[in-house]
Structure formats: structure tokens, C-alpha cells
Amino acid sequence: MIDQIAIGLCGVTAVFLSQDKRESRRRYACLFGLASQPFWFWMTWKAGQYGIFALCFLYAFSWVRGFYGYWIKRGSV
């Protein structure tokens, strides 16, 4: 139950922020997206949904790209 709540809250927040017109808010989308990933991995593995489990790696990679672009690379400039 906690897994589903965390996925719902973090996932919806990530999508909502990713569509914000302000970059200052959009940059937080990847943080919420990354926060939901452990719950996605756990839920799909536990349910035996191995195709979705594999997709979780692609989603996590995408959120990491955003994290790198908004937080790591930007901070080093």
C-alpha cells in the first residue's frame, strides 16, 4: 500500500513539474521521478511483471539524464 502511494505521489508530481513553464520548477521533476523509481522496481519485481521491470531501467536512466542536466552539469558551469 505504501509503495502505491509513493508511486502515485512522486510520479504525478514528477509529470506535473516536467510540464511547468518555469524552468525553476521543471528542474525538480527529475528528483521526484528518481524518488519513485525504487518503489517501481520493487512493485514490478514483486508482481512478476518483468517487462515493466525492464522498462523501469529506461525510466530511471531518463530521470538520471534530467538530474545530470539540471543539477550536476549546471552546477559545474
Automatic annotation (TrEMBL):
Keywords: Membrane, Transmembrane, Transmembrane helix. It comes from the Bacteria. The chain crosses the membrane at residues 28-45, 51-71. This is Nicotinamide riboside transporter PnuC. The lineage of its organism: Bacteria, Pseudomonadati, Pseudomonadota, Betaproteobacteria, Burkholderiales.
